[in-house]
Amino acid sequence: LFWLSLNVWLFCRTFLLYYQGLQYYYLHQMLGLGLCVSRASASVLNLNCCLVLLPVCRVLLAFLRGSQKVASRKTRRLLDKSKTFHVTCGVTICIFSVLHVAAHLVNALNFSENYNEDFLSLNAANYRGEDPRKLLFATVPGLTGVIMVLVLFLMCTASTYAIRVSNYDIFWYTHNLFFVFYMLLMLHVSGGVLKYQTNLEEHPPGCFNPNKTLRENVTVPKAFEELFPDYTTEPFPEDLSVPEPFVQNNFMRICSEEPKFQSHFPETWFWISGPLCLYCVERLYRYIRSNKPVTITSVVSHPSNVLEVRMIKDDFKARPGQYVILHCPRVSALESHPFTLTMCPTDTKATFGVHLKVVGDWTERFRDLLLLHSNQDTEVLPIFQQRRYPKLYVDGPFGSPFEESLNYEVSLCVAGGIGVTPFASVLNTLLDGWKCYKLRRLYFIWVCRDIESFRWFADLLCTLHSKLWQENRPDYINIQLYLSQTDGIQKIIGEKYQALNSRLLIGRPRWKLLFDEIAKCNRRKTIGVFCCGPNKISKILHKLSNSSNSYGTRFEYNKESFS
To answer: Where is each FAD-binding FR-type domain found (predicted)?
Structure first.
């Protein structure tokens, strides 16, 4: 709402600038309100085209998210809205592009119909009545504008939720047309179609030039009839307004020369050159950083179409909750996908890993390539005995909201299905040692549809539970597993999972009661709420986090969102 209000304010301010600006007097007489709307919408487009790239600068966000860079947790939480801000800027660009296009369609028509022979340099048309379509398709600004509209339409439609879910490839390839869009934008603003007057002192708008020789189509105000009777031809038209600053006590200034017009320097270059260069430099840095393939140490096939990949990479460091982008050329030459780290490298081990759900073409092809070269053995082999896995490149790591889960005294982590992955790295980190972190109590809620899904991290949960019992801190983590659908089997198979079987519940969590219980046990504390799962659960948790309670407990909501 704030961003919408800011854009509307900028639109109105620029509209009034062009409506009242004396340097645009003659152009306004020719184009009318089309000039004001086109320039006002262009100012909003400049701002949003500048800022839309910043939320996708992943390295920059990861740098700012680091606790040593931004000390305030509240400020760091604003970075979690990067995707929302990116989408908001994109929607704003689409809306004001429609206004901009509509205004320029009117301008093209007015340039043709209101062709003025007195101000030849001001005209975009070559003669009166010229076909407006020539201005759209036979000029650089017009043609680049048409192509940009087509590119923006493809990017907008392919970004809808339905297309992203049904065919992610379409979204991926069309979204990368943004580079074409920006190159066209650079050319679009270099045409210099709209011009302003440069000699206001020598030729105030609406002034009278007695030295002008061609007077056939020029009329003189009545104020000059007595002073210059020879130049008087007919009454001054009432519908032609004269700027107030130049009319005082029936006196009008006399101009000494003809008006001179000049095209604006393309301000769009100032707006987008910085962010565009920053984005290009970052992409180059990421390419250099990720150009060496990782060493895959093991591939594990888990129940319910989940694949675990463990890797080693030189000088790779990551924090719990971060994610990486995987690129396998044999799967796709251009396509890559983000996956949350489920295991981070530590001082004692260099291995890191991800769990991925096989749900699309890319993951299916990736799984087939990996399992073709693996016997699904979970053993981690020495590097010189490695199987010949396909080349895999890792870009990252990048920051996510779940880095903050260890910075609260109390955290509530809610996972839905494969959404457990960001919490797995947190649990692995606690297994290595929890005393060095601020976190003193962790509520872990995991909701799955089938019983087999719990086996993805059952060993990890049981190991962590046993360690905390041995250290006399059984209350450090509160584990609750919910099976939303059941076929009668209500236990996780295996004797070693008895600690989890006692925490397995049938049905869905009663979120309101759960929040009330947590608030009661942690009076007057700030609790971090972290969710990675279906939007339905996310909306419920977000609403409950913003609700007040009688215990003085404050809930701060966070949600996983890939930038």
So the answer is: 289-404
